[in-house]
Amino acid sequence: MLLKIGSKGDDVKTLQTKLGLTADGSFGPGTSEAVKKWQAANGLAADGIVGDATWSKMFAVIAARDENGQLVDDDGNPVEIDSADDKVVTAGNVAVANIAGLKLDKLKGHVPDAVIAQIPDCANKFQINTPLRLAHFLAQCGHESAGFKATQENLNYSADGLNKIFGKYFRDVNAASYARQPEKIASRVYANRMGNGNEASKEGYKYRGRGYIQLTGKDNYGAFDKTVDEDILGNPDLVASKYPLLSAAWFWNSRSLNNAADGGATDAAVTAITKKVNGGTIGLADRIKHFKEYYALLV
After folding, report:
1. What are phi and psi of 65, to 5 degrees?
2. Strands (E), the chain
3. Which CATH architecture does the domain made up of 91-153+209-299 adopt?
4. In the 8-state DSSP scheme, what is residue 283?
5. Tens-digit pLDDT profile for residues 134-189
6. Domain residue spans in the chain?
């Protein structure tokens, strides 16, 4: 993803609409200035260029899930992701190498090239190596990450959002003193669980949710660490920047979801997998739609 002065197209229109500008699809000085203001207000380098970090933060609607598995925004209000509305961003005419049993080139234009490039590693390490398994896997990853855009958890909650979503962690402290401070928020709500240390250790923030199916907690990062050569525990940002799909494949494998995927190309199979990924059936129609799309391309 790279949008700057001179860029044109639907992604520029999406950006302009988000910024409250006239959506003419042409990235000019006015759009650049609006981007700079947005970046400055959201703690990013105000360069007026929309790269992956800016795009992900601007459009990442995944904040957390409430106790019922419903996705909620930073004010704790329910949101629904429809990845059918998300634009796939590709890098142009990038060659895609097929692997045994998988026609990955058929996914171009439907799945970002950066995602396709990670599929062979997932196939080799976690046996996501049939059209049926891969279609199920991509449908879940795409929905969970808002169309392969969100690679890390959004923790920029308001006080109201904290009380709605994480109320039990703020019974003895003033939520307002944590509001809009992601490091403090994650350090508290993820403290002393999932292998993390206490709030003061800040491990809750260090091992916050990352990846297309969010990897969360020191124990899970440690388990994923054993599958790659890099030091994931020491460099957890690699999950978001380099291994968003492979970390999701680790999760997939840990829940034996290949077996569920082998159940067939049916709505019932998508439903069963969704319950294991989501804890419920939030976004089921979108997941089914994309499973059918990917499976038709791959078979």
Report:
1. -120, 140
2. 64-65, 71-72
3. Orthogonal Bundle (1.10)
4. T
5. 999 999 999 999 899 888 888 888 999 999 999 999 999 999 999 989 999 999 99
6. 10-59, 91-153+209-299, 156-197
